[in-house]
Structure formats: structure tokens, C-alpha cells
Specification:
CATH superfamily: NAD(P)-binding Rossmann-like Domain
Shape: globular
Number of domains: 1
Structural class: alpha/beta
Family: Belongs to the short-chain dehydrogenases/reductases (SDR) family.
Helix content: 40-55%
CATH topology: Rossmann fold
Radius of gyration: 23 Å
Number of helices: 11
CATH architecture: 3-Layer(aba) Sandwich
Bound molecules: nicotinamide-adenine-dinucleotide
CATH class: Alpha Beta
Oligomer: single chain
Keywords: NADP, Oxidoreductase
Order of helices and strands: HHHEHEHEHEHEHEHHHE
Pfam families: adh_short_C2
Length: 314
């Protein structure tokens, strides 16, 4: 049993706060000059330039699904912000643009299937050996099968969940274990590690002209995982957030549009901004979430959809 003496009254609390405030206001101890690191609770916004907050210098970012599409574009974003980049993908080789990435930053391509846990674990060990640690991770590997619900073969539904849900789960778990192990080698003592999952607007609403029941539900699972891990890993100083794009111009969308002739027009007209998204539209958000610019954000989602998620007037 706790005795009443263990609690302080509201009046005592008020008094304590007043005393601390008065000590701060009238203290004779010199306050830090602008080029000194301020103590907790002091005016950090005066001493940290906003552009520095976005820097990924000295960090290694692992990106699944980075052979092409959104993953490759976000690899460029991380590299341009100063990171070293490790790309993991099931494809035997990356898109030709990978050669341009190599000129910007130290990077390496690893052929790895995110559904193969043991293989993925070995790949993460190799990344650790090659780069010395993992400070950030983007999970962009994914597929989007398009077929009416009543016709979906269970084997293909399982494959979609294996890649989009379990692949994301395995990747996040392996990355987080490395981040915990690496804490002693942190870039800055108070820096956070960051996992950015690629969700989808499909977790929130059905998409006109598409039949993607297993995809929608798999992205709903990713969004739930973001919230759970955001909470569960917060004490380890690992932040977990997601970017949920709308319709972005990549092979994944073009493959669906190939067998649905009316879809191309829908993809342009359905978003309130009346255009498809470009991979460029996602780059800044990825750097924000990977960097200390988002140091107090976890368990969150950035929807980049041209307004698609919000609804429509006509
Ligand atoms: N393009 C869009 O409009 C859009 C919208 C919302 C969300 N997304 C999501 O963005 C992510 C990337 O999509 P994209 O448009 O760049 O597609 P994409 O097909 O261009 O690229 C996906 C990449 O994932 C890789 N991949 C697939 N299965 C894999 C596996 N088992 N192991 C490792 N790698 C694997 C592919 O080889 C490919 O390089 C996906 O998760 C997708 O669901 C895309």
C-alpha cells in the first residue's frame, strides 16, 4: 500500500514549478551562447538550422524494393541528403539509374527476397559488415495484384500478404535489431533511428477502377504495424512512420493500367489535383521521416495523394 505521503498536492506542485521558473529567470549562471548546445528545455530552435535537421550525413539507410520505382527514387533522396545506401531487391539487377546513384553516394545492391527470412537476415549481416551499421530503413518492396475478390486464388492472395505484410514485418524486425545493437555507435548521442514503411492510400479507401482486395488489406496491416511499432520501439529511440502514396507513376501502376484501358484516365482525373503523383513528390517526405527533422514523430502517416484520401466534390 502506498501511503498518502507519497503524493504531492496540486498546490505543492504549483509552488515547485514557480520555484523552478524563478530560478531559471533570475539565475546568475550564464545562458548558453547561440553556438553552444543548449540544455534540455532551452531554446534549441535558435541554435539548430532547419536545413541541418534534414541531413542524413554519416547514416546508412537500407531500402527494400529499391531496384526500381519508388524504392529507387527514395534511395536517391537519401543519398542526396548525405546517406550511404544499401538496396535490397528480389530482382537480379537494378534499373540503369542505379549507376547514377553510385556516383552520388556510397551504395551497394543486394539481391534479396523479403519473404525469405533467413536470406534476409544474412543480407542484413552483410550490410552491417559492409557499412558498419544501419541507421534507417525504408520498406518499399511490394506488389499490387488486380483481380476481382471472388476470383482471387488463395495462393496468390498468400503471396501478396507474404511480400507486402510479412516482408515488411521481417525487414522492420531485422533493421530494428541492428539499430538496437548499433546504439553504442550512434552518430549523435541523442539521435533516433528511423524506419519508414511505404503504405498506400488503399489502406483507407477503395480505388476506382481497380480490384485490389488483398493489396488494400495488406496495406491496412502495414499501417497497423506502423502504429504498434511506433509505440513499442519508442523507448529504444527507434521511430516508425509511413508514407502512404496515392497513384504514383511507376511500373506497378502501369502494369495494372495495361489490362484496364479506362484506368489511365481515372488515375489522372480521380485525385482532386487532377494528376498522377510523380516519385519526386515523395522524396522530401522520406528525408524528413528518416532525419532528425522528424525527431518527435512516430507511429504516424504522411498521405501524399493529391487529395485523393480526403474525398472529392465531383
Ligand atoms: N506506384 C504507386 O502508385 C503506389 C501507390 C501506393 C503505394 N505504393 C507502394 O510502393 C511500393 C513500391 O511500389 P512501386 O510503385 O515502386 O512498384 P515497383 O513494382 O516499381 O517496385 C517494387 C519493387 O519491389 C521489388 N519486390 C517485389 N517483390 C519483392 C520481394 N519478394 N523481395 C524483394 N523485393 C521485391 C520489385 O522487384 C521491385 O523492384 C509498394 O509497396 C507499393 O505497394 C505504390
Amino acid at each position: 500500500m502506498y501511503g498518502a505521503s507519497r503524493y504531492i498536492s496540486l498546490a505543492q506542485l504549483n509552488q515547485a514549478c514557480l520555484t523552478i521558473t524563478a530560478r531559471r529567470l533570475f539565475s546568475t549562471t550564464p545562458r548558453p551562447k547561440s553556438n553552444q548546445t543548449p540544455q534540455d528545455g532551452e531554446e534549441k530552435f535558435l541554435t539548430h538550422h532547419v536545413m541541418d535537421l534534414f541531413s542524413l550525413r554519416g547514416r546508412t539507410i537500407a531500402i527494400t524494393g529499391g531496384a526500381q520505382g519508388i524504392g529507387l527514387a527514395l534511395a536517391f533522396a537519401a543519398a542526396e541528403a548525405g546517406a550511404q545506401v544499401a538496396i535490397l531487391d528480389a530482382a537480379s539487377k537494378p534499373h540503369d539509374n542505379y549507376n547514377r546513384l553510385k556516383k552520388i553516394a556510397r551504395s551497394r545492391y543486394y539481391q534479396a527476397d523479403v519473404t525469405d527470412y533467413n536470406g534476409l537476415e544474412q543480407t542484413f549481416e552483410r550490410i552491417k559488415e559492409d557499412f558498419g551499421g544501419i541507421h534507417g530503413c525504408i520498406t518499399a518492396a511490394g506488389i499490387c495484384p488486380d483481380q476481382p475478390f471472388l476470383e482471387r486464388p488463395w495462393q496468390e492472395v498468400k503471396r501478396c500478404f507474404d511480400i507486402n505484410v510479412l516482408g515488411t514485418f521481417y525487414t522492420a524486425q531485422l533493421a530494428a535489431r541492428h539499430m538496437v545493437r548499433n546504439k553504442s555507435q550512434a552518430i549523435e548521442s541523442d539521435a533516433t533511428s528511423s524506419i519508414v514503411m511505404i503504405g498506400s492510400v488503399a489502406a483507407h479507401r477503395a480505388s476506382a477502377g481497380q480490384y485490389i482486395s488483398d493489396y488494400c488489406s495488406s496495406k491496412g496491416a502495414v499501417l497497423s504495424l506502423v502504429k504498434e511499432l511506433g509505440v513499442e520501439l519508442a523507448e529504444q529511440r527507434i521511430r516508425v512512420n509511413c508514407i502512404s502514396p496515392g497513384y504514383i507513376r511507376t511500373d506497378l501502376m502501369f502494369d495494372i493500367a495495361k489490362h484496364r484501358p479506362k484506368l489511365a484516365a481515372i488515375l489522372q482525373s480521380e485525385p482532386p489535383m487532377k494528376r498522377m503523383g510523380d516519385r519526386l513528390d515523395l522524396k522530401a517526405a522520406a528525408v524528413y521521416l528518416l532525419s532528425e527533422g522528424s525527431a518527435y514523430m512516430t507511429g504516424g502517416e504522411i498521405l501524399i495523394t493529391g487529395g485523393l484520401h480526403a474525398g472529392r466534390i465531383n
